[in-house]
Design goal:
The chain has helices at 20-31, 79-88, 148-159, 204-213, and strands spanning 10-17, 34-40, 43-49, 54-60, 69-75, 92-100, 104-110, 116-122, 138-145, 162-165, 172-175, 181-187, 194-200, 217-225, 229-235, 241-247. It has 250 residues and is α+β, with helices and mostly antiparallel strands. The chain folds into two domains: 10-122, 2,3-Dihydroxybiphenyl 1,2-Dioxygenase, domain 1, CATH 3.10.180.10; 138-247, 2,3-Dihydroxybiphenyl 1,2-Dioxygenase, domain 1 (Roll), CATH 3.10.180. Strands 2-3-4-1-5-8-7-6 form an eight-stranded mixed beta sheet. The chain has an eight-stranded mixed beta sheet with strand order 10-11-12-9-13-16-15-14, with helices on one face. The longest helix is centred in the N-terminal third of the chain and has 12 residues, at 20-31.
C-alpha cells in the first residue's frame, strides 16, 4: 500500500525540554494544544494536537546539558542519502540516520554554518500539511544566517530546495520543485545561525501578553512583514524560542 510523502516540506516539529509537564502547561494555555503521552522503549513521547490534527511532539532532553529548543523535521525519501549530502556539503551529523521501530528513519544535523535541522522518512507516510493553517498550527520556518549564498547551496544539495523571490518579490525563500514555499532566509550579522519555527495566531498582542503571564518572555515584540502580516518571537519558561505569526486579514 502506498503512503503519502511530501519530500522537501516541513512535516513535524518537536520540543526537547528539561520539564515536559511544565511545557504542557505553558503551551496548552497559550495555544489550546492537547497532549497525549505515548510509551516508548526508552521513555515517553508526548504528541501535540492542534485544532484539527497532530502537529508536533514533546520529549525529555536526551542530555541535560543541551538547551531546551524546538526542532523541525523535513520529509525526505532517503535519510541515508540525505546524511551523505549533509556531510559532503560540510555539515555535521548529530543523530542518525536512526531507524525508530514503528516510526521511521530520523536524522538530526547541523548545516555548514551550525544551524540545526532534522529530516525524516516516516513508515506510515507524512502527517498532513494544512494548505491553510488554523490558529495554533505551525506555519513557517526561518533560517537566520550570515551567508545567504552558502545557505542556498547547502540546502539545495540536501533537500533539493530552490531559491525563489519572497512574497512581494523581496528577499529569498526556499521552495520545492513544485514551487511550494518552505522557509525564508534572513541575513543576520553577529548572530549564530539558527532555525526558528512559527505558530499562527489570531492576535500577536493577545498571544504575547498571555505568554508573559504564563512565565514566558518576549524577545521580539513585533515586526511588520509587508503584504504578509506581523511576527513576534517569544521564549517559553525553559528558554525555547518560538515565532508567532499573525497574517493580514483576508
Amino acid at each position: 500500500m502506498s503512503v503519502r510523502r511530501t519530500p522537501g516540506l516541513a512535516v513535524w516539529r518537536e520540543l526537547l525540554t528539561a520539564d515536559v509537564e511544565k511545557a504542557k502547561g505553558f503551551y496548552g494555555e497559550l495555544f489550546g494544544w492537547r497532549f497525549q503521552d505515548m510509551p516508548m522503549p526508552d521513555g515517553t513521547y508526548t504528541v501535540i494536537s492542534g485544532a484539527k490534527r497532530e502537529i508536533a511532539g514533546v520529549m525529555q532532553l536526551p542530555m541535560p546539558e543541551l538547551p531546551t529548543h524546538w526542532n523541525t523535521y523535513i520529509s525526505v525519501e532517503d535519510v541515508a542519502a540525505t546524511a551523505k549530502a549533509v556531510t559532503s556539503g560540510g555539515g555535521t551529523l548529530f543523530y542518525g540516520p536512526a531507524e525508530i521501530p514503528e516510526v521511521g528513519t530520523l536524522l538530526t544535523f547541523a548545516d555548514d554554518s551550525g544551524a540545526v535541522m532534522s529530516a525524516m522518512c516516516a513508515l506510515s507516510g507524512d502527517p498532513e500539511v494544512a494548505a491553510q493553517p488554523s490558529p495554533g498550527d505551525f506555519c513557517w520556518e526561518t533560517l537566520s544566517t550570515q551567508d545567504k549564498a552558502r545557505a542556498l547551496a547547502f540546502y539545495g544539495k540536501v533537500f533539493g530546495w530552490k531559491p525563489q523571490p519572497g512574497p512581494g518579490g523581496e528577499g529569498s525563500v526556499f521552495a520545492t520543485d513544485s514551487g511550494t514555499m518552505v522557509a525564508d532566509l534572513q541575513v543576520m550579522e553577529g548572530v549564530a545561525p539558527h532555525w526558528l519555527t512559527y505558530v499562527l495566531v489570531e492576535s500577536l498582542d493577545a498571544s504575547r501578553t498571555r505568554a508573559e503571564k504564563l512565565g514566558g518572555s518576549v524577545t521580539v515584540p513585533r515586526i511588520e512583514v509587508p503584504t504578509v502580516g506581523s511576527i513576534s518571537v517569544i521564549q517559553d519558561p525553559a528558554g525555547a524560542y518560538l515565532g508567532l505569526f499573525q497574517p493580514l486579514p483576508g
